[in-house]
Amino acid sequence: MPTSNPTQRRAQPVAGTRPSVRLDEQFARDLAILMQTGDDLTTAMRTAVGIVADMYRTAWYHQVTPVGTAPTLSKYKFVQKPPFVGPSTLPTVDHNGPTSAPSSRQTSPDDARRQMQPPRPPQRQQHSRQPARQ
Q1: Are 106 and 115 in contact (CB under 8 A)?
Q2: Please, which residues have CB within 8 angstroms of residue 95's CB and are 6 or more apart in sequence?
Q3: What pLDDT digit, counting tens, does each position of 41-88 carry?
Q4: E-strand spans in the chain?
Q5: What is the per-residue burial (b if ≥16 Cβ within 10 Å, else e) of 70-106?
Q6: How far is Cα 30 from Cα 48, in angstroms, rounded to an integer?
Q7: With a threshold of 0.90, does the pTM exceed it?
Q8: Contacts (Cβ under 8 Å, ≥6 apart) of 58
Q9: According to the model, what pLDDT value does residue 114 have?
Q10: Model confidence at 100: pLDDT above 60
Q11: φ, ψ for residue 97 (rounded to 5)?
Q12: For a designed S-S bond to 103, which of 59, 70, 89, 90 qualifies (C-beta 3.0 to 4.6 A apart)?
């Protein structure tokens, strides 16, 4: 019976490689839920991993948990997906610490609306005349 190499499990992923992931019943059900949005398996997995990675980066950046420790999500707010997807606004955190990256990605629907609408000049209130009483 072969034993798994613990260092192989914790090796850093390498871009361009094809990892092998075993699906158990729960994992398959969870992926099926994500795929109901129309995403294929690869996109669903990338989206899920991206969301969790952003959560970890944010917790580490704000020192909610130490770097390398998995945070626990206690509260969240549902928002509609912004119409524009760009680079992440969150800092990249690695073993050297956080580094900020400039971004044009909206963090809320309000940000998306602000970007889509050109700024308006301030409007003066027009005073309406009251009709004279007779």
Answers
A1: yes
A2: 67
A3: 999 999 999 999 999 999 999 999 999 999 998 888 888 876 666 655
A4: 92-94, 97-99
A5: ebeeeeeeeeeebeeeeeeebeebeeeebeeeeeeeb
A6: 10
A7: no
A8: 64, 90
A9: 47
A10: no
A11: 110, 180
A12: 89
Place of tokens 């206690």: 74
Average pLDDT over every residue of 94-99: 60
The distance from CA 39 to its chain's CA centroid, rounded to whole angstroms, is 16
More confidently predicted of 10 and 104: 10
Helix axes 25-35, 41-61, angle to 10 degrees: 100
SS (H, E, C) 93-131: EECCEEECCCCCCCCCHHHHHHHHCCCCCCCCCCCCCCC
Q: What is the pLDDT of residue 13?
A: 87
Residue 57's nearest CA partner among 100, 15, 87 is 100
Residues facing 94 on adjacent strands: 97
